[in-house]
Amino acid sequence: MEMTSSSEREAEYHSTDFDWEQLRQEIENLPSFSYHLSPHTTASSTSDSSLVEADSWRRFHRRHSTARFFKERRYLLKEFPELLSCHDSVKVIEVGCGNGSTVLPILRARESIVVYACDCSEEIIEKAKEIVVTAKSITRKDRFVPFVLDFSNNEFPEWLFCTSCQNSSSAKSTSTENSHENEEHINSSILDGNRCCVGGVDFVTLIFTLSAVPFNKMRSVIQKCSSVLKPGGLILFRDYGVYDMTMLRFPPEQKVGFREYIRSDGTLSYFFSLDVTRDLFCEAGLTEVELEYCCVRSVNRRIGKEMRRVWVHGKFQKPVL
Fold first, then answer.
1. What pTM, to 2 d.p., does this model score?
2. Is ATP-binding among the key words of this record (predicted)?
């Protein structure tokens, strides 16, 4: 397992190494970056292609399934202390779990936390299982419940939060005899024998996941995440921010939408502004709790080059009914 140095990990906690507004002014005054500011594209849009989303990420995970590619997100609990503040049993779903880099620190946080995790790649789900099973600090492996799901194109399984339980206050009821196609992925010990679902989750984590979804599907993904969240629960969000170093590296021919780019391997990458992020989540009926740019300055020692990283950090709450 590849580890980052302590100094590199600590750097990820700081969000004000430089001023984002100053960065914006600098970038927008450079003619060479003008194509990043234009809403027009210079490449054929691929946002509507499901193959670009799922198949490209499956190939990506297949190429990067080794332990060398694994870097545990150790900053997570410091950025989202809510995961530590709950004393009762807590349910979390990690959307787009990859190889488990986010899952591991959450499982270590408390013995009472159960983590459900999904990704579109069966290979990467198996890799995440392997990493959790071999982690010495996690005694109860049944607290990790992974399942395969292309969440940008499909609904979450009803064993997470069935329609009947979501609408329990209404007269309409849903038969518990409904077929739960993905139920084989869940450990039977998680569910009470008299319950049709786990009753929703307390937290949804979207950590560098939403940017990989075509922009025109992001609202749908957030709605799906909200649908499995308990009232009062939180979506914990962290993703690439506009004018991040990686955005500025994209050439014009890889731009497929406003702030949306396609990599050479076919995977997508979107870069969020605070306004767009706010609109996406609030339009899904969620309430903004925190939203800010994280601006981190780091140095690539190998080539001696300074890197200015920009991420968007957010917390959004599902209203209590």
1. 0.85
2. no
Q: Per the structure block, which two tokens stand in for 47? A: 């946002």
The continuous run of DSSP H or E covering 124 comes out as helix 122-133
- 10 Å CB burial of residue 4 (0-12, 13-18, 19+) is middle
Q: What is the pLDDT of residues 277-287, one digit of tens each?
A: 999 999 999 99
Which whole-number Å values give the CA distances from 315 to 116, 237, 287, 320, in the listed order? 19, 6, 9, 15
pLDDT for the residue 66: 54
Least confident of 63-77, 83-97, 144-158, 231-245: 63-77
* CA dist., res. 79 & res. 255, Å (int): 31
With beta carbons less than 8 A apart as the criterion, state whether 275 and 251 touch. Answer: no
- Alpha carbons within 13 angstroms on the beta-carbon side of residue 99 total 21
Rounded (10°) CA dihedral 234, 140, 5, 269: -40
- Closest alpha carbon to 313 in 269, 260, 274, 285: 274
The pLDDT of residue 72 is: 79
Name the phi and psi angles at 146, rounded to 5. -90, 150
Q: Order the strands of the 229-240 sheet from edge to edge.
A: 144-148, 113-119, 90-95, 201-207, 229-240, 305-317, 287-300
DSSP, residue by residue, 225-270: HHHTEEEEEEEEEEEEBTT-HHHHHS-GGGEEETTEEE-TTS-EEE
**Tokens in use for 254?**
């890889």
Cβ atoms of 144 and 115 closer than 8 Å: yes
Does residue 267 contact residue 62 with C-beta atoms inside 8 Å? no
Q: Write down all domains in the chain, each with its CATH number in brackets.
A: 6-169+180-317 (3.40.50.150)
Residue 181 CB-density burial (10 A; 0-12 exposed, 13-18 middle, 19+ buried): exposed
| Rounded percentage of the chain residues whose pLDDT exceeds 90 | 56
